[in-house]
Amino acid sequence: MDVYERSPFYYETDQMKIVHHSNYIRWFEEARVHYLDSVGMRFADQEATGIVCPVLTVEAQYKQMVRFGDTVQIETRLTMYNGLRYGFSYVVRDKATGEVRCTGTSTHCFLAPDGRPMRVKKEYPAMHAVLTAHLAEDAG
Length: 140
Description:
Blueprint: E1 2-6, H1 22-38, H2 43-48, E2 55-62, E3 72-81, E4 85-94, E5 100-109, H3 120-123, H4 125-139
Antiparallel strand pairs: 1-3, 2-5, 3-4, 4-5
């Protein structure tokens, strides 16, 4: 698990200073990139090798509003990895109170530079080892 912290920018809010629902999906992406960086799989390095990981699914459940001026912590866990795809869960909590504001999930696949699905275990064994180890760690 990794925790990513951020405060909403004013432009992410509506007239009532409540964060617009679409921004949570962006926050999930920020948190996922932070997670991958924290486990030694810098997202920029992956893309430099030609690996891309498009979003296959994303889901969010909104529990409470986040407002301008709040600070949230986004807990990110690797929840699924099978060599072709991986998935993450997210819990957005208010930093001050610990209250859950939003939860969500996303799944992604691995594509080679030519756009074909890629088997990570075969083509990038070191990446496979990291993902396998963190899947077990996040599950426990």
